Amino acid sequence: MRALIVDRSAPGQLRIADVPDPVPAPHQALVRITAISPNPAEFRYILPGVPDGAVIGWDAAGVVERAAADGSGPAAGTPVTTLGLSEGWAELRAVDTALIGTVPEGADPGEMSTLPVSAGTALRALRKLGPLLGRRVLITGASGAVGRFAVQLAARGGAYVVAVARKPELAAELRALGADEVVTGPGGVTGPVDGVLDQVGGPDLAAYFGLLGEGGTLVLTGAASGGSTVFEPGALLADPARRDRAIVTFFEMSGDGIDRDLSWLAAEVAGGRLRPHIAVRGDWADATATLDAVRESRLAGKAVLDLG
Fold it and tell me: Under CATH, which number does the domain 129-249 receive?
């Protein structure tokens, strides 16, 4: 099979090459991949630590070529979206059936490939905030891939959504997705919030934590800023209006039900009730510019590469 392998002598440190087909374990299905969706974090955290020749990649969609030997997961011929810690950027992928979501017939594989990390993170992180109906929820990085899904899902759950986007010109887009307010930073937020979904981290994290009211939770899903967080003396102490606050860390591939979540998200997108934002789409054979844009976090949304 062909795969996008790590090669530090190649442009962008990646190139297409022939590699052996994967051999699935009994609990894995073999999936023929037709679309992949790279994430900035793969370049930030995964690429530097793997050897040349490695195949990386978390998000990929395609069709089951061979069902799992243990009888779990979807049957051969089923369109699917898949999640894994590696080996997604290839024509064939051996995937744990617990990390496979079924896709409605006729759905766009490119759209389905955007779901596992971005929509999956948004859905599972918002659940950590508890019931959303009538609550005030702040979402940072709202113009990015995770943020756009989180705005839509939080609004669907009945939350009053405060979206943080550094570019004011994106306010209309975010309001169309369900945001009630759009601000450019913590200074633009008035009043306490019940929950924060923070993907940025860095210096503003302490300010967002300070906005939490009694019983509020901040879920930290990423650290895109690359900066440090400093809490001033007393910032973590409670008072009558700000007690029982929490910062919760997040790892998407923990816990059960990922297959169900991915299947639900796929059905929502296919039914037009959830909108992925594909900022750029192209063929994986000519993807250097697209991969560089992902690596440098220059896209307000997802990139999709189709496997020709």
Answer: 3.40.50.720
Question: What is the tens place of the pLDDT at every residue in 187-221?
Answer: 999 889 999 999 999 999 999 999 999 999 999 99
Dihedral angle sign, alpha carbons of residues 205, 207, 210, 216: negative
- Ranges of H-type helices in the chain: 40-41, 109-113, 120-127, 145-156, 171-177, 204-210, 258-270, 288-295
pLDDT tens digit sequence for 274-302:
999 999 999 999 999 999 999 998 988 89
Residue 221: Cβ-neighbour burial (10 angstroms; 0-12, 13-18, 19+): buried
Q: What element of type H or E holds 16?
A: strand 14-18
- Burial (CB count within 10 angstroms: exposed 0-12, middle 13-18, buried 19+), residue 60: buried
Contact, 168 vs 142, CB < 8 A?
A: no
Q: Where in the chain is the domain with CATH 3.90.180.10?
A: 2-117+253-306
CB atoms near residue 244 (< 10 Å):
11
> What does the DSSP assignment read for 69-100?
TTS-SPPTT-EEEEE-SS--SBSEEEEEGGGE
How far from 37 is each of 136, 197, 218, CA to CA, in Å? 31, 22, 27
Asked: is 2-117+253-306 a CATH 3.40.50.11750 domain? The reply is no
